[in-house]
Specification:
By secondary structure, this protein is mainly alpha-helical. The protein is 72% helix and 0% strand. It contains twelve helices and no strands. It is globular.
């Protein structure tokens, strides 16, 4: 029973939604903003809705009458998450809604085959299938969702520190994706042209380590450099580096889906404890 509950926790995207929730809260803490229930809860429920839509759209549309029980439960759960997302959506500021509209279109194109075929390297017609683009689309969406969305909703101006934080978050998510891509090499089509497929596992780890160095160094270019942010960044960089180093083609299904995905939650806990 515990195993089933844990698998539901992962398969229904609750864990990844908590990670997005945590990164959004990290942003609020970094800019000394109050707990923003509307933006945080919107990110949480929108992450569940979006991830389940992307993951299960292809399965559900072809096997609607023969869906496995667990998938039906996830569909019902996702429906409630969608309604909760809509509730918090209407609580957000108007400028925030404009950003959300753009991110929603990108997410839709990521899952639905609407893109002209001559842009693609595979038979599918969505953003996931454009060679080498998948990881950058994910990093882009996560950056704007967890950094710019809460700041825009709190009317914070676009300063140099905001831009640097956005760049750091993009790098962080990019590196966080590498263990996933390494573990998925045996499943992914070669036409996806993921980073490990193009340059190999060892070089991917080296690139990831270099990106993490840039992630830390960027902190020193901010106008406001606090001890709390520096220490938490160093710890989370070290943990991320360890997860990257120990990632491999044949790894446990929970390695990336639980442990790597849980790093943003650890980051939030560090920020709250150290703060």
């Amino acid at each position: 029973m515990l195993q089933r509950l844990f698998n539901f926790y992962l398969n229904s995207s609750i864990h990844v939604a908590l990670a997005a929730f945590a990164l959004t809260w990290v942003t609020l803490v970094q800019f000394n903003l109050e707990y923003d229930e509307n933006s945080l809860c919107f990110v949480f429920f929108a992450s569940i809705t979006a991830y389940n839509f992307v993951k299960y759209f292809g399965v559900a549309k072809f096997h609607h009458r023969r869906l496995a029980t667990w998938l039906k439960v996830i569909q019902v759960f996702s429906l409630f998450a969608f309604f909760a997302m809509c509730y918090y959506l209407i609580q957000l500021e108007q400028n925030t809604l404009i950003l959300i509209s753009v991110l929603a279109v990108i997410t839709f194109l990521y899952a639905i085959p609407l893109i002209p075929k001559h842009f693609l390297l595979d038979e599918q017609k969505n953003l996931r299938e454009i060679g080498g683009l998948k990881v950058y689309v994910i990093a882009f969406v996560w950056t704007f969702t967890t950094v710019f969305l809460p700041l825009i909703n709190n009317d914070l101006p676009l300063t140099a520190d905001v831009v640097i934080t956005g760049l750091q978050r993009f790098i962080f998510v990019l590196v966080l994706m590498l263990p996933f891509e390494i573990g998925d090499m045996k499943y992914d089509s070669i036409k996806l042209a993921t980073i490990p497929q193009k340059i190999g596992v060892k070089r991917s780890k080296v690139i990831g380590a270099l990106l993490l160095m840039v992630f830390v160094l960027l902190e020193f270019f901010k106008e406001e450099l606090t001890e709390t942010m520096l220490i938490s960044n160093l710890i989370i960089t070290f943990v991320t580096l360890l997860c990257l180093v120990f990632s491999k083609k044949k790894q446990s299904r929970y390695y990336s889906a639980f442990w790597v995905e849980g790093i943003p939650i650890l980051w939030l806990l560090l920020m709250l404890v150290l703060g």
